Structures are given as C-alpha cells and as structure tokens.
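User: Here's a chain of 229 residues. Predict its fold as tokens.
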Amino acid sequence: MRARLIESREIAPEVRHFLFAAEGVERLDYTPGQFVSLSAECDGKTITRAYSLASAPRGDNRFELCLNRVDGGHVSPLLFGMQLGDCIEMRPPLGQFVMRQPPRESLFIATGTGIAPFRAMLQAHLAPTGPPITLLFGVRYESHLMYRDEFEEMAGRVPHFRFWPTLSRPDASWAGRSGHVQTHLAEAIGDRRDVNVYLCGLKQMVDDVRGILKGMGFDRKQILYEKYD
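Assistant: Prediction complete.
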C-alpha cells in the first residue's frame, strides 16, 4: 500500500501536520490511537517508522499525521521534503493504544508530538453526553502547543473537557501552568482513583508518571501508554 501526500504544513517549529491518502482503498478504517508504519529506502536499506494517526477515521481513505523532524533521522527528513503528490510505502493501521470500553472518566497526558493519538481520540469520543476528559499537554515553549485552537474550542463547547497546557520553559508573558506535566498530575486527578490514564510522549515522562500513579494506588490496568525516545 502507498500513501500519497495531499497537504503538509508547519504547526510548530520543526513540526509539521500531514494529510495523506491511502492509495488503492476507498476507506481506511482504524481505531483512534492506532498508528501507521511508513517505509523508505535509505542507503540501500528499507527503514520503517511508526507514526500515530492524528485524526479520527474520516469515512474515506485519508489520514493525518503530526511529527517532528528528527536530526539524523531517516524517514522524518524524507517526509519533510516530500512534495504534494509524492508517495511513500505504508502499512495498514495497527496498535493497542486505544480507549478502553465502555468509556469512563479519563486523563490524557501528552508531551510534544505525543499529542497526535489524543487528537484522534478526542475527535472520535468527546461528546456532551460522554464521560469527562482532561488533556494535560506539556511542551517547552508556547509556540509548540500544537492544535491549541482546536483543543480550546473543544473546551469551550464541551463543559466536562479540560485542556491544561503547561510549559517547561515559559516566557514572562505566559499566564498558564508551568513546569513538567508531573507537576500537575495530582491536581488533575484529585481524590479519584477510578479514572483511566493514557500517556504518550518521551520515555522519561511516561516512566515517571507511571511510577507516580502506581504510588498513588492506581492499578496498572488503568494506565495505558506509548513512549518513544
């Protein structure tokens, strides 16, 4: 299967949002939170990288990705250099990082481009009649708050959705939360111990938060995560 590039735009420094069409199929069905694998030839070898889908299924063959350029990487520089209409090899969606059923109150914790699967989950599952969801999103700088307008619109439209951006390196004009996501974990959870917690981001963050949650009495079955270096 091949993916054809439909749109590419910068949404933060060295971060781009991609819209692809999967060729040869009318619909690309998947569960929000899953990923696709893209492959490219680099120095005579086939290199494959997995990227979380950044959108809920659309009912057609199109899908969205959000990724940063990795210095010294193989696939991300190629993707950043693609022109509209260019194609790349892909594998169908896979992955178990999806919302538990039946849905219940959830805390999403993301850093950086780990926000991608949560955007897909929110598009699919956030509803006025659904369970409460809190999104705790950590980045270094305000300019790196990908999809900020979308999440703020969701928070204004759905009263039980809380969007908590936090900056680890804020400037003087920032009036919101600061520090790493771990700093705000206890506030986000409160006294509840019956919520599901979903983590996606750098390995250190995921490991730290898992340790804190287990110390708070959470069962490991309540903690779902994906991490990357």
